[in-house]
Amino acid sequence: MHILQKIAPFFLDPPANLTGWCNKRTRRRKKPPMKSSSITQQYAHEFQQNQQAWDQLAQVNVKTAFYDVAGFKEGKTSLQEPELAMLPDVKGKDLLHLQCHFGLDTLSWARMGARATGVDFSPAAIDLARSLADELSIPASFICSNIYELPETLEGSFDIVFVSYGALCWLPDLKIWGSLVRRMLRPGGQLVVVEFHPVSQMIDEKTGDRFAYPYFYDESPLLFESEGSYADPTAPIKRVMNEWCHPVSEIITALLTAGLSLDEINEYPYSPYGCWPMLEETTKGRWEVKEQHGRIPLLLSLRATAPSL
To answer: Deepest in the core among 12, 16, 167, 189, taking most CB within 10 A?
Structure first.
């Protein structure tokens, strides 16, 4: 049966107890676009919950086979094929990695010769990133900051801004994000995004046979109460997290509105990570939705460029 046939009954009668669905959401009155200083105030509670959750996740994830820190210490890169194809040569470039978690990708870019700076709002994650950089003598810098506050915490500009894998869903306003990216880029600098496709975020992650979450943006986040980690579902942690949905059109419009030019956009029917039960490994390092191989977009990559002087 085609997946759209499978999900049609779901839309007609969504389950009342679906985690993250409307009964888990808090609606707010629509407000005008916010500046970066006020967006952190408007969503202070949500950011605090997310930060506390990512503090827990950092302590768990660094020990998991999913992240394979032992392999990284032996020289293995954490970077995947899509981002390496987008950025084959970063030697001598100033690279800013937004929402870097505990820094493996930032450190991998530094190993390739980039002057890399990682930013994350989790103090626990940044402490781990700095510890790894010191232990391995990798020249990378790490800053603990909400990215909406970067204008107050980070000086300078960069040749490359890099964003990847489960980053945009934690941001309530992409227009402000786009303007911040533009501000951080030098003339002619490039933004590279490799992200889970918005369609993939709609799918019931356990069964893979129905759409369980919305596609379009709402300023009211989806609220999830979860146990464990995507890297270790058995981890003894409980967390509350807030996520925002962003369709492809919103991502692109945020960048165009900020004055960037879109150079390329790619979609992939696979994920390099088997981080949801709905996926199965079809070839080494490529995970697809069970019984839907090649049919559903799971990954999106794009490159955008700041105007030259």
So the answer is: 189
> Among residues of the chain, what percentage have pLDDT more than 90?
73
pLDDT digits 0-9 by tens, 60-77: 999 999 999 999 999 999
Q: What is the DSSP string of 22-69?
A: GGG-----------HHHHHHHTHHHHHHHHHHHHHHHHHHTTSTTTTH
What residues pair up with 226 in beta bridges, in sequence order? 239
pTM, 2 dp: 0.87
Buried b (16+ CB within 10 A) or exposed e, 231-245: bbeebeeebebbbbb
Of how many residues is the chain composed? 309
User: Contact 51/170 with Cβ under 8 angstroms?
Assistant: no
Closest CA to 61 of 155, 144, 129: 129
Beta bridge partners of 271: 287
The one-character DSSP state at 226 is E
CATH topology of domain 34-305: Rossmann fold (3.40.50)
The ranges assigned to domains in the chain are 34-305
Q: Say if residues 160 and 130 touch (Cβ distance below 8 Å).
A: no
What's 203's DSSP letter? B
Lowest mean pLDDT among 105-119, 220-234, 284-298: 284-298
Q: Give the separation between CA 12 and CA 7, rounded to whole angstroms.
A: 9
The tokens of 139 are what?
């020249």
What's the farthest any 2 CA atoms get from each other in the chain? 56
Contacts of 249 (CB under 8 A, 6+ apart): none
As a whole number of angstroms, the distance between CA 246 and CA 216 comes to 6
SS3 56: helix
- Distance from C-alpha of 180 to C-alpha of 163, rounded to nearest angstrom: 13
* CA atoms within 13 A of residue 9's CA, in its CB half-sphere: 4
Outline where 74-173 has alpha helix (H): 81-86, 104-111, 123-136, 150-153
